[in-house]
Write a structure and sequence with these properties.
By secondary structure, the chain is of the alpha/beta class. The protein has 3 domains: about 230 residues, no CATH class; about 200 residues, no CATH class; about 130 residues, no CATH class. Strands 3-4-11-6-7-5-10 form a 7-stranded mixed β-sheet, with helices on both faces. The radius of gyration is 30 Å and the shape is globular. The N and C termini lie far apart (about 70 Å).
């Protein structure tokens, strides 16, 4: 049966049975679980809020039913695996748990216990063993059980700590549910009215919050359906699709593939800021062996080549192994860098701090194929290339294509040293003349980048060897905009439009100790001059204090000075 606009129609295909259901009745059936292979809780605050608001609207308008999509599952002996719909089920369960908590806080322990037994946790009459009606995957279940399903006075609930991003999303959803009850459901009602209205909500969830229950006969069919369906408001990523495809193709080797995928994900979690960016890693890996591949076609490309369990296991094994190399090119403290030379860690840290991602396939391929000496040579080039393309505004897509082609040539063995890569990249990397003009006109609003540029330029001025390789610690050395962001009457020689244009010009920015920076703020140039010229300041900062006034000619002149240094700081062929 399927439900459509209040009409039920019979429908059945080979291996698939479709029938009407409600969220409440599914939760009452108990023994629902998310398979090990499925993703963790993903809904953000806007998805949770939207669901609760939609239900509220249906109830207030006295609707007989409200449809929230389909649930895909496999009924097995003793339990049901949910392959699509866990976000809606879990989020609905969080709301029911919050209603239970409300009654508990209102000293109506009997009602709270009945709600718990009906939709959350059942206790075996003889063994007293507790059985959650819905289990999330292995990463989320314990936290979900302790922080959501257990009653508020349970010690394990009070002690529950969010350890993962998915746990934090579960916690956020619980807070939304609790606040939604107080603000949108029971606000202004007497205790008796509030109780009656909350029971109305529970009845609606049980009898009218409708879904289409899609029961399939095997995992492969479930994965295929999962690929084509969306959880409410949260489209599957290429990584989700790929994972499900590999699991489906794995057949009797599926457990091995699951283990390898989870091992790969655990490696990525060690890289700050990359724990959930599995798709970027997979794409980077794929590019090294297949050339430039856009995210939108990544899944289709991999699916086309991974056609049986042997190939699926091979790919999962490769992804697990190469993840360590990927971590090494991003994480300067990684153990695989220990035998690569003392300077490699610093150079990797600088590339990471620049925020360039297009270069990753090239570095990954080189890390795996080049000698340590040649890999370090390529790192040197990549730092200069990154700064030159950032300041000159080379389109990221064009740059990625060049990096990807060179990465493939390295993997194939065509490029065995850094030199041929440099030759290939020379076609796209700005030469000295173009780079100089770009620096002369550069506006840098990103303070992290501006600080790095100015510190590297200062080191070059000071005659430091490899001036481009510096830590960028931040707060002890801060940026000062000589023409301030909120100029007063002392800056009337700039029009309002000129103020906007020249504020973030690199020539208008200097490095100062944080204590000095905080004191001069939006002061005039006359007031700032002594601070800029103070003993112990950087020489390039002192140079900005030699003028009678600070205007457009001074900014342009200083920027030309910095442009001359830039060519030396980030050489075309380091």
């Amino acid at each position: 049966m399927i439900w459509k606009k209040g009409i039920y129609m019979a429908s059945q295909s080979v291996g698939i049975e479709i029938a009407p259901a409600t969220i409440g009745h599914l939760l009452e059936e108990k023994n629902l679980q998310v398979p090990l292979s499925q993703r963790s809780y993903r809904w953000e605050e806007e998805h949770v809020t939207e669901l609760y608001q939609d239900i509220n609207g249906a109830i207030l308008s006295n609707s007989d039913e409200y449809f929230i999509g389909s649930i895909v599952g496999i009924k097995l002996k003793g339990f049901t695996d949910i392959y699509d719909g866990q976000q809606r089920l879990a989020t609905s369960m969080i709301l029911v748990a919050a209603i239970r908590d409300y009654f508990h806080a209102s000293n109506d322990a009997k009602t709270a216990q009945l709600i718990e037994n009906e939709s959350l946790i059942s206790t075996h009459r003889q063994t007293h063993e507790e059985t959650p009606h819905f289990r999330l995957n292995s990463e989320d279940q314990q936290y979900f059980h302790n922080s959501i399903l257990l009653p508020p006075d349970n010690k394990s609930r009070r002690d529950a700590k969010a350890q993962r991003d998915s746990h934090k999303r579960i916690s956020a959803a619980a807070k939304i549910a609790s606040n939604f009850i107080k603000i949108s459901i029971v606000a202004g009602l007497s205790p008796e009215q509030a109780s009656k209205h909350l029971h109305r909500w529970l009845d609606f969830i049980r009898d009218a919050l409708r879904v289409i229950w899609v029961q399939v006969g095997d995992e492969r069919t479930a994965f295929t359906l999962f690929e084509t369906m969306n959880d409410r408001g949260l489209r599957l990523s290429a990584a989700d699709l790929l994972k499900n495809w590999l699991y489906a193709m794995g057949e009797d080797r599926r457990d091995e593939i699951i283990q390898k995928w989870q091992s790969m994900a655990a490696t990525l979690e060690t890289i700050e800021g990359e724990s959930e960016n599995v798709v970027e890693y997979v794409r980077c890996y794929w590019i090294t062996g297949h050339g430039n591949t856009r995210t939108k076609v990544l899944y289709d490309e991999i699916k086309r080549e991974t056609t049986n369990k042997t190939k699926a296991l091979e790919l999962a094994s490769e992804l697990e192994t190469v993840a360590q190399d990927y971590a090494a090119i991003l994480l300067s403290s990684h153990e695989r860098l220990s035998n690569r030379g003392a300077n490699v860690r610093t150079k990797i840290e600088v590339i990471r701090s620049l925020g360039v991602t297009q270069v990753r396939p090239l570095l990954l391929a080189a890390f795996r194929k080049f000698s340590s000496k040649e890999f370090e040579k390529l790192l040197d080039a990549c730092v200069s290339w990154s700064v030159r393309t950032l300041i000159s505004g080379v389109p990221s897509g064009t740059l990625e294509g060049y990096y990807s082609r060179s990465a493939l040539e390295i993997t194939k063995g065509t490029h065995k040293k850094a030199a041929p890569v440099k030759t290939a990249m020379a076609k796209i990397i700005p030469d000295n003349a173009r780079f100089k003009v770009a620096v002369e006109n550069a506006s840098v609003a990103n303070q992290h980048l501006a600080r790095y540029y100015l510190r590297a330029l200062q080191r070059c001025e000071d005659g430091e060897k490899e001036p481009q390789y510096i830590p960028n610690p931040g707060r002890e050395v801060t940026l000062e905009h000589i023409l301030p962001s909120k100029p007063g009457s002392d800056w009337n020689h700039f029009t309002s439009e000129e103020q906007k244009v020249y504020l973030n010009r690199l020539g208008n920015q200097v490095l100062l100790p944080a204590t000095v920076n905080s004191k001069i703020g939006n002061a005039s140039y006359t007031v700032k001059k002594p601070a800029l010229a103070a003993k112990g300041n950087f020489s390039l900062t002192k140079e900005a204090a030699i003028h009678a006034s600070w205007g457009i000619p001074e900014i342009k002149a200083r920027q030309q000075r910095l442009a001359d240094l830039a060519i030396k700081t980030w050489p075309l062929d380091p």
